[in-house]
UniProtKB/TrEMBL annotation:
InterPro entries: AAA+_ATPase (IPR003593), ABC_transp_permease (IPR001851), ABC_transporter-like_ATP-bd (IPR003439), BCAA_Transport_ATP-bd_LivF (IPR052156), LivM-like (IPR043428), P-loop_NTPase (IPR027417). It comes from Streptomyces chengmaiensis. SMART domains: AAA. This is ATP-binding cassette domain-containing protein. Belongs to the ABC transporter superfamily. It comes from the Bacteria. Residues 659-690, 722-733 have a biased composition (Low complexity). Residues 738-949 form the ABC transporter domain. Keywords: Amino-acid transport, ATP-binding, Cell membrane, Membrane, Nucleotide-binding, Transmembrane, Transmembrane helix, Transport.
Amino acid sequence: MASLTYDLTLAGLAVGSAAALTGIGLIVTYRATGVLNLAHGAIAMVCAYVLLQLAVEWDWPLPLAAAVTLGVVAPGIGLLLERLVFRPLSVLGVDPARSLVASIGVFVLLVGGAAAVWGEGARADAPELLPDNPWTQLTAAVLLAVLVASVTRWTRFGRELRAVVDNRPLAVLGGIDADRVAAAGWAFGSFTAGLTGVLLAPFVRLDPYGLPLLVVEVIAVAVIARMRSLPVAVGAALAIGVAQAQLTRLHPRGWGEPLLQAVGANLFAVALLIAALVLPGVGAGASPAPPAAPAVRVPPGVWLVAAILFLLPLGFAGRDLHTAVQVPALAVILLSLTVVTGRGGQISLGQAAYAGLGALFTALLATGRFPEFPALPELLALLTAVLLTAPLGLLTGWPAIGRRGLALALATLAVGVAVSRFVFVQPYATAGLRLTRPEGFADDRRYYMLELGVLACALLAVGALRRGRTGRALAAMRDHEAGAEGAGVPVSALKLFAFVTGAALAALGGGLLAMGVRAFDPEAFDPVRSLLWFAAVMVLGADGLLAPLAAAVLLVGLDAGPRGGLAAAAVGFLAVLIGRLPEGLPGALRRLRPPPPGGLTPIPETGGEPRADPPRGKGGSGLPSGAPGTAASPRRRTMRRLRPARGGEPAPPRRARPPQEAAPRGRASAGGRRLRFRSGSGERPAPAAAERSRRFRLPLPPRGVRVLAPGLGAGRGGGGNRRAPGEAAGRPPASHRLVARDVRLRYEDFTALDGVDLSVASGQVTALVGANGAGKSTLFHCLCGTLRPDAGRVELDGADITRRSAHARTRLGIARTFQQLAVFPSLTVEENVRIGAEQQRRRRRDPAAVEPVLRLLELDGPIRDRIAAGLSTGALRRVELGRALAGRPHTLLLDEPTAGLDAAEAEALARILMALAADGTAVLIVEHDLDLVARVADTVHVMEAGRIVR
Ligand SMILES: Nc1ncnc2c1ncn2[C@@H]1O[C@H](COP(=O)(O)OP(=O)(O)OP(=O)(O)O)[C@@H](O)[C@H]1O
C-alpha cells in the first residue's frame, strides 16, 4: 500500500509540475502585461506539434528540435503576440475586456490553425523530451519558479517589472521601457507554455482541442494564487496533482463512485470552478464587456437578402443540404449571446454548456431513457428541455451579479468546463445517444424548413425584446451599470433574466442541432465551442440580429470544407484584430461609408452641438492627438468618458482607496467660513468653447415660472399637471423628507463618516459643501443606496430605507445624478430619458413624462434621436438630469452637477434647481462651486473630516 501511495504521489507530482509551469507562465504574463492569457494552452499545443513536426516528421535530433521549439518558436510566438496583438491594444488604451476577447481570438486562431495544418485527429507519437520521471519535471518546475522569483526580486529587470505592474504610466514617466518589459513577459510566458506542451504531449491526447482545454483548466492555480504569488501557484498545482492521483484509490460503493471518479479525473476543473466562483474575482475592476456599437437599424433590403440566402439551401440536396441543416440551429444558439453579451454586456464563455444540456435533455426525453417517464414526442421533448435548461442559466447568472470582466469570464468558463466534464462524459451521454426528428420533418428539407420557422420566431422574439423596455434596460446595464441602477433598473434581476433567457435560447438551438444530426455528440458542445462562438459573435457585431446569422453561416460553411479548423482560424484572426475594430466588423464597415444624414451617427464637430473640450493631460499614446482612430480622437474620447470609470462610480471598493482627482483649488467663503475648495472637477472652457456653449446651453426657465413639480407640472413643455401618487391635483404636493441619522462609515481603518445627521426636505435646495475628502460623496452614496453605512439609518418620511438598494430607492422617488457622467452612450437621447420614466414602479411609471422633460431641457429637437456618444458635456448633463426627472422624483440628489459646465450652463442649471424646489421637490446638491451654492441653496451644510460641522 505504501508503495502504491508513493507511486501515486509521484504520478501526481508529475501532473502538478506541468500545472505549476503553466501557473508560473500565466502569472508572469499577467503581472507584466495585465492580460490573462487564455491562449496559454493553445500555445502549448502548437509547440507540442512543432516539436513533433521537427523531431518525428522531419527527423531532426531531439535535442536540436527541442532547442528550436523552446528557445525560438515558443518565445517567438509570445513576442509576435505582444507586438502584433497586445501592444496595439495597450497603446490604444483599450479596456481589459477587449484584451480578453483578443486572447480568446488567439486561442481560437491557434486551435483552428493547428487543425488546418496538422489535422483534427489525435497524435500518439509525440516525442518524450524528459524521461518519464516526475522528479525531473518537478525539479524543472521548482527551478523555474525560483529563477523567476530571484529575477523579480534581485535584478534590475525585476524592479522594472514590479514598477510597470504597480503603475505603468508612472513607470514610463520614470524612464522604464514598459513595452520591453511586456515583451519579456510574453516571451517568458510562451516559453513556459511551450515547456508545458512538450512535457504533457506524450502523456495526454495531442489534438488541437484537448491539450488547450486541459491547460485552460489549470488556470485554476493562477487564480488560487490571486495572479500574484508564485509559491502559492506551485504549491496549489502540486497539491491538486497529488490529490487527483490519490483519489483514484478510493472506490466508495453506490452512486458516490462515478461522482468520485469524475472528481478525481477532473480535479483541476473542480478547482477552477471553486476558485472562479468562491474566491473574490480576479480583475474585478474591469469593464463588463467590450462596449457594443450602437445598434443600427438594418435596412429591410439587407434582411431580404439574408432571408433569400437562408432559403437557398432548400434548393440543395444530399450532403450540402445535410450540412446546411446545422446553420439555423447554430444561429439560434448564437442568438443567445446577442442577448447575454451583445445587449446585456455580460461576458459568457459557457453557452456551449447550455446548448449541450438542451441537446442532451431533448435526446434523453425523446428516447425515453428514464424508465419512469414515457418517451416524449420530439417537439415536446425539445420544449421540455428548454424549460429544464432555462433555470440552469442561474449557474452563470448568479456569479454575474457580483462579477465583471475577467472574473465573470472565468466563472462562466469554469461552469462550462464543469458541465462538460461532469455531465457530458457520463455513460448515459456518451453511449451513442441517438434521436429522431419530429414526425413530418424527417427529411432534411422539411427539417430545415422547421428550423427556419423556429429561427424566425427566435429572431422576432429577441428583436421585440431589444426594442422594448427590457431591451433598453439591458443596454443601459451594459453601457453603465451604476447609471442603470441609479435610473431604477434592477440590475441583479436583469442579469439573471439575461442569463436565463440566454440559456433557454442556447438549449433550443442545441436541441435543434442534435435533432439535425440525429445524435447527441458531447464534442459538439465542448468548452472550446463556447470560446469560438463568443469570438465569432463579438467580431461580427454582438448587439445585432444579423451577427448570429452571419456567424452561423461562416462557422458551418468554412468547416464543411475538406480542411477542418478554417472557420476557427478565420474567426480567431478577426478577433485578434478586435482592438483595431472597436465596434467589430460591422463598425469597421460602417466607417467605410460616408455618415448618413441624421440617424444614429455621432454629431459632427461642426454641427449645432458643441463637443466637450479634450481632457487635458491624458493620452500619452505617442500618436497625434485627435488623429482619426487614435485614443485621443474625439469620438473615442467621448466614448471613454462615458464609460464608467473602473466599474462604475458608486459603491467604491471598500479596500482600494481611489486616487483623489487632481483639480484646481481656490478659496471662497460659504456661510461665513473660509473654505479650501475645488472649482468643480471640470475645467472652465476656453473662450471659444464658452462661445460655442452660449449657442447651445441649458435652457433658462423664465424667472418665477414653476418648471417642474414632483409630478412634472407646469413649465414651458406643459405636459399636463401630473403629481406624485397621492397628491391630488390642485393641492400642494405632498411633502417628503430624506433623513440621515447618525450615519457612520469606515473604509478599512479610515473613518469617512463619523455620525452624520442630515435632512433633505421638500421645497428646499439643501447644499453639502466641504473640502476634498471631507466625506460628501460618501454621504451622498449612503443616501442614494450605493453604499450601506456601518451604523446609523437612512429614512424616507420616517420609514427606514437603509437596506434598500439603489434602484429600489430610485423607484421610491429618490432620483440621482452622478459626479462622473453616467449616460448610456449607445442609446439615443430620448431612450436615455425614457429609461428614467419606464423603470419606475408601475404606479409611479408615466411614459408621458418623457416629452415635457425633453422639451424643458431642450432635448426635443433633432438631438433626441442622436446617440449619446459624441454629445458635449453640457448636453450630456442635461440628458442625465432629464433621465432623473423623467421618473417624477420627489427627491433629487445631485453630485457636483456643474462639473464640466460653463458659466452659462451652470447659471441655467441653478435656475432649474430653484424652480424645482419652488415646485416642491427636495433637492440636495454636493457642490464645490460656492457661488452657485450661495445663490440656490436654502440650507448649506459644511462637512469636515466626516462630520457636519455646521
Ligand atoms: N473606496 C474607498 N476606499 C478607501 N477610502 C475611500 C474610498 N472612497 C473614499 N475614500 C476616502 O474617504 C474620504 C472621503 O471621501 P469622499 O469621496 O466622500 O470625499 P468628498 O468630500 O466627496 O471629496 P471630493 O470633494 O474630492 O469628492 C477621503 O479621504 C477618501 O480618500
